[in-house]
Amino acid sequence: MSDLPKRVEFHEEGPREGFQIEPRIYPLEQRAALVEALAETGLKAVQVASFVSPKAVPQMADSEALFAAIRRRPGVRYEAVWLNEQGFQRARATPGVDLAGKISLYASDAFARRNNNCSAEEMRGRVLRWLDLYAEAGLTVERALVMAAFGCNFEGEIPPARAVQELVWAHRICAERGIVLPKVYLADTMGWANPQSIRRLVGMLREALPDTRIGLHLHDTRGLGAANVLAALEMGVDLFDSSIAGLGGCPFAGHGDSRGAGNICTEDMVFLCRGMGIGTGLDLEKLIEAARLAERIIGRPLGGHVMHAGSLAAYRARAGAAAGQG
């Protein structure tokens, strides 16, 4: 356990991950209220929405209006996702979007075709174009992510070396252009990871790119989200995408449930870190409030645990008061 990080950073994706997967479109003011509540928790970045085809994902059709409705908090980045150049240009033209260059790659050819309408190899070619676009826009390339790194519902088992090769390629291509790639992410897009595969793949990636920060984008599809985070923490990983109340899921990931399961739950993972003495800089009680707000908006019980059981702070205070009276 000597490799445990002293501090962990969570990148919040609930508003985008959560609302894009729901079968209905929720009122704009409710979605803006959730983003604003999350910004009050100490989070440094919140992924608000995606700029994608309104026909494919109608839940994200009003992303421009959503960004306009948010009351921004200083020091918080309000980010977005795009899959193609048209979406990127929409994001660039939208006031309030905090832009950063991001590279997406695929360890699964089948999922690449389903999610981006191209092969994994063709996606590499698109990355070269993205690097040109980011340079033209004056954007720093912040991270590279490889999707379906641990397995794919359409292709099956994914050899660990394949995901590592994609990120090593991204690192090399950036270096050839004088770009220092600060972060590389392994994404368990469809919930195939387990603690052993987390340790194996993180270890392989760290050996290949020893000076690059490793992040994980994990889903709790099959209930191993917390176990996988623990394994990653023990490997020294200090960067995670997460989702308030466990919202989310990829609409093209082919889960049996129409919603699938969301990212690892932000407040649950903050609770885990706190119990292990790992700092996050986040206010757990405010995260719980935001999670309960998300549940009220969605209108059904959500998958978070701490939001329902509460943190231990109130119980400890109650026990301390009782001891004082005794």
List keywords for this structure.
single chain, 326 residues, alpha/beta, six-stranded parallel sheet, two-stranded parallel sheet, 8 strands, globular
What's the arrangement of secondary structure elements?
Elements: E1 9-12, H1 14-21, H2 28-39, E2 45-51, H3 63-69, E3 77-82, H4 85-92, E4 101-106, H5 109-116, H6 120-137, E5 141-147, H7 160-176, E6 183-188, H8 195-208, E7 213-218, H9 225-234, E8 239-242, H10 266-275, H11 284-298, H12 306-309, H13 313-325
Parallel strand pairs: 1-8, 2-3, 4-5, 5-6, 6-7, 7-8
Helix pairs in contact: 2-3, 2-11, 7-8, 8-9, 10-11
Brief account:
This protein is 44% helix and 14% strand. It has helices spanning 14-21, 28-39, 63-69, 85-92, 109-116, 120-137, 160-176, 195-208, 225-234, 266-275, 284-298, 306-309, 313-325, and strands at 9-12, 45-51, 77-82, 101-106, 141-147, 183-188, 213-218, 239-242. The two termini are 38 Å apart.
Structure description:
By secondary structure, the chain is α/β, with parallel strands linked by helices. It has helices at 14-21, 28-39, 63-69, 85-92, 109-116, 120-137, 160-176, 195-208, 225-234, 266-275, 284-298, 306-309, 313-325, and strands spanning 9-12, 45-51, 77-82, 101-106, 141-147, 183-188, 213-218, 239-242. Strands 1-8-7-6-5-4 form a six-stranded parallel β-sheet. Strand 2, helix 3 (63-69) and strand 3 form a beta-alpha-beta unit. Helix 10 (266-275) packs antiparallel against helix 11. The two termini are 38 Å apart.
